[in-house]
Amino acid sequence: MEHWLNMRAANLGRGIASGEISPVALTQTYLEAIDAHVLRDQIYTVVTHERALAEAEAAERRAKSGQRLSLVDGVPISWKDLFDSAGTVTEAGTNLLKGRIPDQDARVLRIATMMGTVCLGKTQMSELAFSGLGLNPVKATPPCVNDAGAVPGGSSSGAGASVAFDLAACGIGSDTGGSVRIPAAWNDLVGLKTTAGRISIDGVVPLCKQFDTVGPLTRSVEDAALYLAVLEGRKPIDLRGCDLVGLRFADLQTVAQEDLDPTVAAVHAEMMQRLRQSGAEIVPLEVPDLTEAMGLSALLFTTEAYGLWKDQIEAAPDRMFPEILERFRIGKTHSGADYVAGWDRLMDLRRIWAEAVAGFDGVLSPTAPILPPNLDRLQSDHAYYVKANLLALRNTRIANLMGLSALSLPTGTASCGLQIFGSGAGEEALLRVGAAVETALA
Distance (Å, rounded) from C-alpha 194 to C-alpha 176? Predict the structure, then answer.
């Protein structure tokens, strides 16, 4: 049964449907693997044994009576430690919330449970989700599957590690500036960033409500599509017949291909060639106004984040990782008038972006311009930390600023992801494009 641990969620679901896999045995296999894993506490904050087995038993009864709720009914998954879960400590990676126990599940967790998901537990994360690196000296830093001496990417660090280390079939994370896509890229997974406002964040510990989104980290595009549907309580889209022939992509040059790590640059060039060979048209694209949008990042993200958390932070700043504390406090340097003007200008820039990318089936870039940074150096070299954190999230942040859906796919080269930007609320089209690209890169 150990081979179940690295199977795609869709295939586990098919095994349950055919009677070859028992949801209870599958859940027990995952729980035993988690409990035995030497890095368990670096990946999971808490393992919900009783809940998982109760949900698995219910899934098994549905399977036997022919009443399954979704293809992944009975498949065990993990949840980032900012999704409220009733009776289970939820601290969002910070001692500011130490001992916090919600009395009900986040809405998205309730919906997913009604679709038959099995909750294995909660996963580690960057403090209050305000870093793309995955480093958390306050709680725990999960491992990177490709480099024991590097960070795993964040802030959904444990979500990515839970899947990469075969301790969950899917990890549910959040993405405010790249927090699903960076750990997906650095751990060779698929990561889906949904459009802000599409999936409920009710009961999700916030960072920036205007940008916060919910999304899955999985082993395939099909799995990502299945979990998007599960998180919304509906049927998944049909990915059959996806093909690159005749599709037209923009290869984004502005911002996204500046200061690339040589390995990342080489892999991206190779990916463009492989997509061309599979029948896609690739067009280099410059969007000069994107540079201005990126310049609004500090104003928009830090002002809202500090506005939401200033009372808790200033009541106990010594409880925080200093790097995260410093980043939050940037927000108090901006005025409310500047924040309002910044959002007004961003909406103009979003319209400019939409005009520039009209006619393309997707916009491409490296997911991250750098490879996973060194863990020890991040803790001892402030300048290195700041530069690495900003670079890690630079390319992914484009989608958040422009109000887009986005997908990160593994390329076959360790910790190098290919990012596809879709349109706002365009996840269905994006996933079909992603499925075609996944096939071409396989």
Answer: 10
> pLDDT tens across 247-282, in order?
999 999 999 999 999 999 999 999 999 999 999 999
The amino acid that residue 385 corresponds to is Y
Give residue-wise pLDDT tens across range 181-202: 999 999 999 999 999 999 999 9
Residue 100 and residue 56 in contact, taking contact as beta carbons nearer than 8 Å: no
- The DSSP bridge partners found for residue 249 are 282, 362
387 is catalytic: no
Catalytic residue among 85, 126, 157, 179, which? Answer: 179
* Helix, strand, or coil (residue 67): coil
Answer yes or no: 126 catalytic. Answer: no
Which residue of the set 80, 122, 139, 193 is catalytic? 80
Q: Is 179 a catalytic residue?
A: yes
- Please state, in angstroms and rounded to a whole number, the distance separating the CA atoms of residues 309 and 320: 12
**Residue 329, domain extent:** 248-295+323-441
CA distance 184 to 238: 23
Provide the pLDDT for residue 80.
Answer: 99
| Same-domain check for residues 148 and 82 | yes
Largest CA distance in the chain: 61
Indicate whether 154 and 274 sit together in one domain: no
Evaluate whether 431 touches 221 at the Cβ level (below 8 Å): yes
- Domain-embedded: residue 238: no
339 found inside a domain: yes
Catalytic residue among 155, 157, 220, 365: 155
Residue 318 lies in a domain: no
Q: Which of 199, 232, 265 is the last residue of a domain?
A: 232
Q: How far is CA 243 from the centre of its chain?
A: 25
Phi, psi of 249 (to 5 degrees): -120, 145
pLDDT in tens, 402-439: 999 999 999 999 999 999 999 999 999 999 999 999 99
Asked if the structure places residue 302 within a domain, the reply is no
Number of domains in the chain: 2
- Tokens standing for residue 363: 């916009």
What is d(CA 190, CA 333) in angstroms, rounded to the nearest whole number? 37
What is this structure's pTM?
A: 0.98
Handedness of CA 228, 364, 164, 1 (dihedral sign): positive
- H-helix or E-strand containing 218? strand 214-218
Chain Cα centroid distance, residue 204: 14
* Shared-domain flag, residues 145 and 59: yes
Identify the CATH number of the domain in which residue 119 sits.
3.90.1300.10
Residues 128 and 253 reside in one and the same domain: no
Same domain, 269 and 415: yes
Are 361 and 433 in contact, with CB atoms under 8 Å apart? Answer: yes
Are 220 and 111 members of one domain?
Answer: yes
Residue 57 shares a structural domain with residue 153: yes
